[in-house]
Amino acid sequence: MKTKKYNVIDQETGRLDPTIYCDPDIYKEEMEKVFGRAWLLIGHDSLIPKPGDFFHTYMGEQPVILSRDKTGQVNAMLNICRHRGARVVRTDDGNCKSFVCPYHAWTYGLDGKLEWVPGEEELYDGTIDRAQLGLKRARVATYAGLIFATWDQQAPSLEEYLGDARWYLDLEFNRSAQGTKAFGPHKWVIPINWKTAVDNCSDWYHVPYSHASAANALTRIMGAPRMTSDVLWKKKGRAAFVNGHQVAFFRLPEDSFDGNPYGVDSTAENHREAIERLGELRGDGLMLGTHSLFPNTVLGFRIVIPRGPNETEFWHFSMTNAADTPDKQRAVALEHAAQNGAGGHFESDDIDNWSQVSSSGKYAGAREIGQYVNMGIGNTHTDDVFPGQISDRFVTEQNHRFFYNRWEEFMNADSWDDIPLDPMKATFEGTASMDG
Q1: DSSP 3-state of 355
Q2: DSSP string across 360-387
Q3: Which of 127, 276, 352, 402 has the highest Cβ tally under 10 A?
């Protein structure tokens, strides 16, 4: 039996070692053991709808071309030319027939196969083995239009990786046969460790304080309910934890913030379809709240891209129902931008806090005393209706502990053989599937 190397979270006390936020050696190891193994959200079908479309994205720090080839297949390829390592694609998105490296014009197909080398006969004497020199490819799989990829050929299927968390994710991403549409991304770089942004996505403890001015503005301008501590502490929302993923959910209509009878559906017709696709309980009686997918997807469709121990690039997409009118979709996108975009009211509040949390591990005194994510220890259970480990409290730090426990499992494993998956128990009523 191998010796466990990392023990950063004490599950009995909630003490967290802040060294993991700023140590460059740990960061380097994360790029291999976490981002080199996990299924990572890298795009959406609506970003590459036609053959020849491509979108430039990242898997950890590594640049990736996401493309749709002539057969309609989606490909994810390392954006590194096999000749001298130059980046082949240098634009954010577009449509093309092939990818040509600007350095020496080695040319690749939409599926990454090497198609042409200048001077192949005259300069290389016909010795180039094109079949061995295509762009490095990642495994690709989709769920309800969301595109995921992994470098690890031994990783479990995406369906197993999501596990029973998909039962809840369907509440937002799988309500309509027409699917969802992604707008964006807004991009910005902030001086934080990537993990800080992920664990914060379920941290409602800070909301009435850090976001007091933004929440008050929403109340005065849009009539939104005030998010005071009195309201949030009594909130009846629950959270479920599966394979390091976190999903918060509400029972409708009693737990709804604004009393909207259709939850995320904008029309009665949308709502009837959701019930057909998800069954009565999920289609009519539940609404998804915050969620995070291990390791770096948060709050709907936001990707947290590591850029160094204390630097992170945020990509924020606005997700809309593809069945909605263009005006409705535009309204949703503008609301997203005002709240959580690069200049969003809530975003600016968070950045300063996250920066200070991330940098605390630089100081000996802070490492000695540690940090504490100890709220709600011991208050999870299994349930006959809701899959996963369940917390009945809306404001809790359960997610922090499940997230860092999963981080330890990835960092202490030699391969996927050492990384456990929770057994799948959910019953999926309705017609929705992994394919949408």
Answers
A1: helix
A2: GGGSHHHHHH-EE--TTTT-EE--SSS-
A3: 402
